[in-house]
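Sequence in, structure out.
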Amino acid sequence: MSDRRSSHFDDQGNARMVNVSAKPVTIREATASGAVVMNGSTAEMIRSGVASKGDVLGVARIAAIQATKVTSQLIPLCHAIPIESATIHFDWLPEQSSGSATLRCSVRVATSAKTGVEMEAMTAAAVACLTVYDMIKSVDRAVTIGPIKLIEKSGGKSGHFQRPPGR
């Protein structure tokens, strides 16, 4: 087992915000994804644009972008950083034999800062998925959300990370 400690705790075990003042500004990018599993007829409603609340994916895209900007207000020890780019992409995975459909939301966030944007990307993916649920809950309450996961990150001292296939 590793002896590594989380940098969010001091020597006495108290929570703290990590001091990044001496770190260099570098280009930081992160990609995260989440999935929304729903009934096939609900997916068709979204695809055809006839949801009673309007453009489901358009609203979810704006919600994800907004989420990147307020992540530090939601995650207590997360630094407030400038978001310089947020790209949200939705794609439909092949339909399941059960008749369910899966919508994947991928979010790529970039900045030039002293700390990374992983939390912003994951928060945005989660908020996009939650927004889809909010837009369709009146017709499909059995929706499942998840997993929310970091796919890739680059920049900073820890360098590049890419999620291994199948994990």
